[in-house]
Amino acid sequence: MVRTVSSKTLVAVILCAAVLAGCGGGDGAGQKLPVDNFTAEEIYKRGEYELENNSKPDAAVYYFSEIERLYPYSEWAKRALIMQAYGYHKARKYEDARGAAQRFIDTYPGDDDAAYAKYLLALSYYDQIDDVGRDQGLTFQALQSLREVIEEYPDSEYARSSILKFDLSFDHLAGKEMEIGRYYLKRGHHAAAVNRFRVVVEEFQTTTHTPEALMRLVEAYLALGLTDEAQTAGAILGHNFQSSPFYKDAFAQLRGRGLTATPQGDNWLTRVYRQVIQGKWL
Description:
By secondary structure, the chain is mainly α. Helices cover 70% and strands 0% of the residues. It has two domains: 32-121, Alpha Horseshoe (Serine Threonine Protein Phosphatase 5, Tetratricopeptide repeat); 174-282, Serine Threonine Protein Phosphatase 5, Tetratricopeptide repeat.
């Protein structure tokens, strides 16, 4: 018996052949094939293939965007949009990734993949943190976007990762303050250095940079002749981080001046001491 082949099956065979042509690393891989006669599912599978087998995700993004063009109101278009965001992010085209992710959130706010879209949007900021030099705008945007994932989707699989990245971003901001403070301290601009280290102690006290910030405050205040502040910084450091090498350094600096690590006077550090250590907030 001779079996006839439907036009739909024939299209699928042609697409499969095109995909297989790319499997061997030949000319098929990465080429943007005309897809006007393909079904949404067939185009989607070609996009998936490009993501898995092509080092440059641009081709995959092309296929996913074509689904939006050809089948704008289909279920496949919705799936393709989130994959566009992923493809752009993989290609490190972060602004495009944010755009696609935000379009998904705006168009499908109640969809199960909205949490992932929000997470991708946050990642597009987070993954740029190390590339922005002293400009911390993207770090603040990463913090805000990560917080939204944590607060809006606390039970999602992305919440835990967002919490970790939020803490790392927060630590990054404190690290930048420390970097600038050390720069000022090294050049003898002690008052400017104090301002930076104060920010760490007051606004980033839960980060890993707090012990060093307190030690640097001891150093800067001693250079300025403000011994009350230096001793109080040493007292906070000794109470909370006595095993830290930064405390040993601060203690040695104070002892070299005949001073002790005890709170003295009435200044912003004694207020921190009363609040954090003594629990007196008034």
